[in-house]
Amino acid sequence: MAVWGRTGTIRDCPPLDSPAGAGLAKEGITEREWAALLKVGEVISLKGSELLISQGDTYDEPGDRQLYLLSDGECRIEVKGKPVASIAPGDFVGEASFTSGRVQPRTATVRAKSDEIRVMAWTWRDLQAFMDNPKNLRTKAALQAIWMEGLAGKLNDVMSALGGQSVVELAEEDKTRAGDYGYRYLEDTREVESIVPISASTLAWWTFTREYRALRRTFRFGEFKDTGIAGPFSIIDRFLETSVFPVLRPSRVDLPQDPEVVDLQNRLNELKLSNKAIEDRETARIAATKAFLEDESRKGLRAAGYILRSQTPWYVMAPYKALCWFLDVVFEDRPIQRFWFLETVARMPYFSYLSMLFLYETLGWWSGAAEVRKVHFAEEYNEMQHLRIMESLGGDTRWSDRFLARHAAIIYFSVLILGYLVSPFLAYNFSELIESHAVDTYTEFAEANEELLKSLPPTPQALDYYHGGDMYLFDEFQTSRPAFSRRPRIQNLYDVFSCIRDDELEHVKTMFACERGTGALPSPNAAAATPRWAQDATPTMPNATAPNIRRNTVKRAETDDAGGGGRSGGSDKLRTDIARKTPLEAFTAAFNPLRDLVKAVEKRDVTEKLRRGRDNGGEQGTDSAVGARGGEEEKIDVSASRKEPEEKQDS
Ligand SMILES: [Fe+2]
Ligand SMILES: [Fe+2]
């Protein structure tokens, strides 16, 4: 480390009209606000080639200097000894780690390039306290705006210098990689839908006129064209058009003429999905999970409540089976439409859970669900992105599919509202079944069509979401990825479906955690964003245990005690263990048993048990847990063929 020399007091600080203050002055900061900011920092001078920051150093005490603003001179940024960028007066250093709040070794060395440099330095503690003060809101906003701009530039510099592609280059590459599949059903209504709604009656009228035209078109030119019912309806519509209805304009939806788009649509139609294969996959996963839990060494997991079969009663299984049957029958050989339908209804559980949690809060019954609400909203937002991707692939082009999906969504929403009222445990259990089914379906689809999918381009919607700079709330529903990490970069449609499947697996895991009320739903993002030194001072994350879940657990514990069981006792122990930990540790602890289970299923360590169980004529239960692929002698692998480095770190 450099030898630091304090050069004095506030009088030695740079004025607002110097290069150091220019950025903040541009953001509208006054002399008074500038002086207040400088007052909580210190001025430091450094001789040429001395180090301001050394790569690999950790700064994890609240009194350590963390953020610097270059006032005079020039500095060089080096990564592994290689110069990658320069910084000039007015540039900040350390804003990335300050804003993320992450305690991690410095990722670059910053060295004085001029004979003498002068910097303003702030400690984490002082600057955080300054920014938390409502009086300094304007300065805080100005600082954040400057940091965001600076970070984007630095990232580009570093990427280019390291021989990789800059963010701009990657975005350009995405543009050339994206494929236009020519499906635009909702494009003309998006603009209308994205503004603040005017009133329910206006919205209802817009929707009615849109669907009314769509219905008329579909009878005349669309999916009912070749059926017996289309003829009479079409004739009646034409007759009414001359007397009552307005003329249908445009008369028909123009099909794409571009040969490239037509070719993409034709190839998309070749994608297959076998209902039988999905069923086999589900059966194998259930058997594998059962075999895993039956092993003597997993007594602890069973004690902690990881016996799933007995927790899914027939009245939850029945609607689940009915939904699966419906999907199989209606969407046979139409996988994209099936996914679109699935994604439409998949958002409904989150809508209903959020509605009920807001109601509980409004009534003053239960106010401890802030974290759970955040997770459910993040899941819902993620499902919406899946939905948009499916729309860009033509999942919603048929009027009949849209009709079915909308009505199924209303029913699904209402049923889950009721379910959540009676028992959040069962509502979450039902969702877990659906999400597991989604994992199985996407896994089967990706594997069965791997070659074709790899030859098809990703859609702009998928690239926007998975590669965009702001993956809004993406970290909030992740259970096993390091905070701020992203899915692997997307090259083709196979990668898109792999990403969606991995998202679904995260939904399964969070539903699993909600069911058991393990009391820890802080996201990896939330946990990692709390610096280590601040964790002790941070209140324990709100307990995610719903009242009904707690009651169920207590009830089960009583039953188990009477019958010599002890499952819920284990659950309570798990909860107690978690409550004693810091948020980050609590998060990890809550998912450890589940992660073990996933890993074991992935690593085939249940294959032998599975075979033995079948040889013994062991029954297959209705358990639902995490996805796995299977077949009797087949490899069992939950997350399909692509392994991610982040997941390997977890094992
Ligand atoms: Fe989804
Ligand atoms: Fe999902």
TrEMBL record:
Pfam families with a match to the protein in the record: AOX, cNMP_binding
GO cellular component labels: membrane; mitochondrion
Gene3D superfamilies: Alternative oxidase, Jelly Rolls
Superkingdom of the organism of origin: Eukaryota
InterPro entries on file: AOX, AOX_sf, cNMP-bd_dom, cNMP-bd_dom_sf, RmlC-like_jellyroll
Keywords, in A-Z order: Electron transport, Iron, Membrane, Metal-binding, Oxidoreductase, Respiratory chain, Transmembrane, Transmembrane helix, Transport
Residue ranges, compositional bias (Basic and acidic residues): 607-617, 630-651
SUPFAM superfamilies per record: cAMP-binding domain-like
Disordered, as annotated region: 523-575, 607-651
Cellular localization per UniProt: Membrane
GO terms, biological process: alternative respiration
Cofactor requirement: Fe cation
UniProt GO molecular function: alternative oxidase activity; metal ion binding
Positions of the Cyclic nucleotide-binding domain: 67-115
Family under the similarity heading: Belongs to the alternative oxidase family.
Protein name as annotated: Alternative oxidase, mitochondrial protein
Organism: Ectocarpus siliculosus (Brown alga)
